[in-house]
Amino acid sequence: MSVNYAAGLSPYANKGVCGLPEVFDSPEEVRAKVETLAQLIKESQYMVVHSGAGISTSVGIPDFRGPKGVWTLEEKGELPHFDTTFEDARPSLTHMALLGLQRAGYVKYLISQNVDGLHVRSGFPRDILSELHGNMFVEQCEKCGRQYVREKVIGVMGLKPTGRYCDVVRSRGLRACRGKLISTILDWEDSLPVRDLNKADEASRRADLALTLGTSLQIKPSGDLPLLTKRNGGKVVIVNLQPTKHDKHAHICIHSYVDEVMKQLMELLGLDIPKWEGPTVCESSTPTSEHSNDVKPGHDDAILFFIFIVC
């Protein structure tokens, strides 16, 4: 989702359809559709959200295939405009609204194609989040599976070693693991992380409502996961400015800015949008007390949190 990220990927020819014209519903159409969405959410027993690059454009991170997207401009021989760095980027209204929906019990699982780390930095629980393409702030021990969430971007991609080693000690008196830490960011031909993909697949099959936000749904297998919900009798709602390959399968397609849709949705559900108070990492969606699993770094902390991943 950034120019730096795109530049670090290997050359690849098939980047999907880029630069499709944006479509805007009228304000009245948007309101009516969001009202329908709010009712679907109230009736849902298990809603899964699928997020793409379009939820981060409002905070200065360009998307890929929009009119000013990274790949769109690349096809024209132009460079995209990038308003912020990954470290300085703040979660958008949509990121924080999703956290509010999760805390209210509406969002059961979140599947993201984004690598900007904003879901994690917003405080969304990592145990109900699949980051299918990796996270610029996360490195993982290739030996024991521990993941470290850093304050700064890792700096390497393609599952390559970062130059650091795992310092986790499983039991007192034993030596640290010392396994090599590797980037979690995928390159084009890398396989998706098994754990994240399996959990995303399971959640998509279980869901009775799939809400897709800011994604053209072009990249497989991520983009096809909402169809698993549809095939099992659930409904799919797509919020995107450009047409997507799965519009024909959607119960509703809302063509509007994602932040505007989420703002109206939260109002209709009677929910406040949480205020962002700096990078916060939450391991578990079931804390023993309110937000007790949230971890905020001090100014000198290199690690926000680490979590054991069973691969």
Verbal overview:
The structure is a single chain. The chain has helices at about 5-10, 25-45, 70-75, 95-105, 120, 195-205, 225-230, 260-270, and strands spanning about 45-50, 105-110, 130, 140, 145-150, 160-165, 180-185, 210-215, 235-240, 250-255, 280, 295, 305-310. Mean pLDDT is about 85; it is low at about 295-310. With about 300 residues, it is of the alpha/beta class. Strand 8, helix 7 and strand 9 (about 235-240) form a beta-alpha-beta unit. It is globular, with a radius of gyration of 19 Å. Helix content is about 25%, strand content about 20%. The chain has a 6-stranded parallel beta sheet with strand order 3-2-1-8-9-10, with helices on both faces. Strands 6-7-4-5-13 form a 5-stranded antiparallel beta sheet, with no helix packed on it. It has a single domain (about 5-10, about 20-280, about 295-310), classed as Rossmann fold.
Share of helical residues: 10-25%
Detail the poorly predicted runs.
296-311
Helices and strands, in order, run as HHEHHEHEEEEEHEHEEHEEE
Instruction: Find the structural class using helix and strand composition.
Output: alpha/beta
Label the CATH architecture: 3-Layer(aba) Sandwich
Number of domains: 1
Q: How much of the polypeptide forms β-strand, as a percent range?
A: 15-25%
Q: Which oligomerization state do the chains in this entry correspond to? A: single chain
Report the span from N to C terminus.
26 Å
Q: Estimate the global geometry from the Cα principal axes.
A: globular
**Biggest sheet, open or closed, and with what strands and sense?**
6 strands, parallel
What do we call the CATH homologous superfamily? TPP-binding domain
What is the CATH class designation?
A: Alpha Beta
Number of helices: 8
* Arrangement of strands in the largest sheet: 3-2-1-8-9-10
Please give the number of β-strands. 13
Mean pLDDT: 85
Query: Remind me, CATH topology?
Result: Rossmann fold
Kindly provide the radius of gyration, computed on alpha-carbon positions and rounded to a whole number of angstroms: 19 Å
